[in-house]
C-alpha cells in the first residue's frame, strides 16, 4: 500500500468528497453527487475554505481522494474561554474501508485541534450508526451528551 497524505481539501476534491458523503444509507437520501455536481456544493466549499475556523480535509492515496472530514473550531466563553474542535462528516471511500484510515483521519484531526489550542474535541454521529459509535469509543471518545436537531 502506498502512503496516504491528509491535507486541506481543494475545490478539485469536492466531487470525490460528495461521492463519499452519498455512499451510505443516510447520505444516499440527502446528497446529489451528479454528474453534474450541483453548484451548491462548490458554493459551500468556497464558504468553508474562506472561513479560518473551518478545515475541510482530504485523505489522498495514489492521486485519489479516499477519505474526508471537516473540523470546526468553536470559540466559547465556557471553560475559561476555551476553544473546542468539532469533527463532522467523517467518511472513508469504500475501497479504503477496513484499512485503518478512519482512525488515522481522527488522529490527524485531534492533532489539528491540539495545534489550534483546543481543550476538547467533540463529534456527533447519527443515532443509527452503531458501528461508528463503537469505532469512536475505541478511539477514546465517550457518549457523554444527548444531541438534538431541528430541521429548518
Automatic annotation (TrEMBL):
<protein>
    <submittedName>
        <fullName>L-amino acid N-acyltransferase YncA</fullName>
    </submittedName>
</protein>
<keyword id="KW-0012">Acyltransferase</keyword>
<dbReference type="InterPro" id="IPR000182">
    <property type="entry name" value="GNAT_dom"/>
</dbReference>
<dbReference type="InterPro" id="IPR050832">
    <property type="entry name" value="Bact_Acetyltransf"/>
</dbReference>
<dbReference type="InterPro" id="IPR016181">
    <property type="entry name" value="Acyl_CoA_acyltransferase"/>
</dbReference>
<keyword id="KW-0808">Transferase</keyword>
<dbReference type="GO" id="GO:0016747">
    <property type="term" value="F:acyltransferase activity, transferring groups other than amino-acyl groups"/>
</dbReference>
<dbReference type="Pfam" id="PF00583">
    <property type="entry name" value="Acetyltransf_1"/>
</dbReference>
<feature type="domain" description="N-acetyltransferase">
    <location>
        <begin position="4"/>
        <end position="152"/>
    </location>
</feature>
